[in-house]
Structure prediction request, 355 residues.
Amino acid sequence: MIKLKKNIQWNYVQIELLFFFVFFYLFPVLTDIEYNFNEPRHASPLSESLKWTLIYGSFAILPALIFYYLIKVFLVRKRLMLFLLSACAYLVGLHFYMAGEYYLIGHASFLPVQMQKNALRWYAAGNIHFSVVYMFREFICIMALAFFIRSAKQDKKLHEMSEQQLISELNYLKAQLHPHFFFNTMNNIYSFALQKSEHTAPMVAKLADMMRYILYEAHHKKVPLQNEIAFIINYIETEKIRYKMAHKISFDVQGNASNVLIEPLLLLPFIENAFKHGLEDETGKGNVRLVLFINGREIILQVNNSKPIGYCKREKGIGLENVIKRLKLLYPERYKLEISDEPHEYQVNLTLMIE
Prediction:
């Protein structure tokens, strides 16, 4: 996490360095090139123009960085009075800084003679050693950079907070789902144990496989769809044993599930709901048909179960409510859930657009 924050901070520093390079070096050079192209008779040699840009651009960067720092420390943080006071002090300091700049350039014998003469003339002038309009233009551009960086940092922070909240909500929903699933499955095994059924041991073995999946894979953000299918098959097999009506329970997978990832236990509540409300223990009546289609970036789950005679509509269970919340968090605008609740049949069609 610390390394990631350092990388993000370095990205902002790179943006700042790029801005000052472009503003104080690249733009002036391009301006000189354009002027030489349009006014070849009046333009000075390009090599001489480049020297001017390099020398004066280098001197201009230091006060620009100081002003940028003042903006970030005072103006961006809405310390307006401190910013105004520091800006006044900055302008006074800038006057003397530029006087020193002209003095140094005027006495640098390795520079072009004309550059030295101009610098000494400007140094000897009794007025302010900078153009107010020119500096105002620079200040606006530097302010724009400061507020852009601030806005980018705020957006990044909001995104991180939103992402952290999403992870917390998903973990909470998954934490609710696991006990709910095991509660139902353990009830089934307990029922067989009371009857001293021969199916108790196979159910315990399948439950062990499912527990292993939940403990070691379900905490991941995504898992291979093939693993999720294997988990669903184990669950269905336990339900076949419980209801003793394997011929009325079907699960068909169509398409290529390899290289496809999905959030763990996302499909289970719809399947679990079909068994819970679609089959009758006493009469052995009812049926459950499950079909999973994989078509490129699209996953479609179709669940169809009958309703027992005299079935009373119940409130949604915690598992189904949680999975709908997870869908809204994980697949905003990328899922479609259709539920058909007919007198004798219940259908669910879930479509996911995976990334």
About this structure: Residues 132-194 form the longest helix (63 residues). The chain has nine helices and seven strands. Residues 2-130 form one domain.
